[in-house]
Design brief:
Length: 277
Amino acid sequence: MKKFKPVTSTLRHTIISDFAEITKSKPEKSLLRPLRRTGGRNMYGRITARYHGGGHKRMYRLLDFRRDRIDVEAEVVAIEYDPNRSARIALIRYPDGMKSYIIAPLELKTGDKIISTIDKDVEIKPGNCMPLRRVPLGTAVHNIELKPGRGGKIARSAGTSAQLIAKEGDFASIRMPSSEVRKVPIDCRSTVGQIGNVEHETWSLGKAGRLRWMGGRPNVRGVARNPVDHPHGGGEGKTPQGNPHPVSRWGKPTKGFKTRKKQKYSNQYIIRRRGLK
């Protein structure tokens, strides 16, 4: 992490990455795609996600979440920065010259050899991809599929990993980063290791401008608004919210109100809910 001399009030609190692990400054051009900004608007032009807009232009990096080049060893060419996610990405090259991006595990370095397999026994080392059936119990994994062949969906952000804790029949039990324990089909594939850039959670942006660079916009508190704009608004001076519990702009309970459906289809796969002791 990088700290600054407190020559200004913003630099006093700024803590950002020093990007020491980055080995390549420019991305692979063949793996870039244009990324159009929505400003939080849906297909009808209506704002559905507030406080989005602006920010620096970005290109999307095509990541290989499926790892479908089976039993072909690839070499790690570079570790790169990705503006679209918190994790670092690794550029890998196959023997035929084909290149692709994957999420970079914590201990992956340039020059390492990694492989993706289905039915072979390979070394349990960061970056290797294999079905949960072939992963030893207690191993930290990331980029986990929910359905075989669909590509990794679970544990893809910086510093995260899930732990394989049991195998029973056609399912494996994994402890998610949220502490939830759920069943996943045992033939789903995952990548060994914890994702890198672990210090990301200690970042301190330091100033509002850095959030604007990232595409965020200002958010005004409800109690500071007028009654027409928010249920907490209005009053003379610093008036309390007035509601028995905090509510959103549309009157729905917020701060801890659970919105998950009680009869959701995936309940059968959840062994232990997150937040339970």
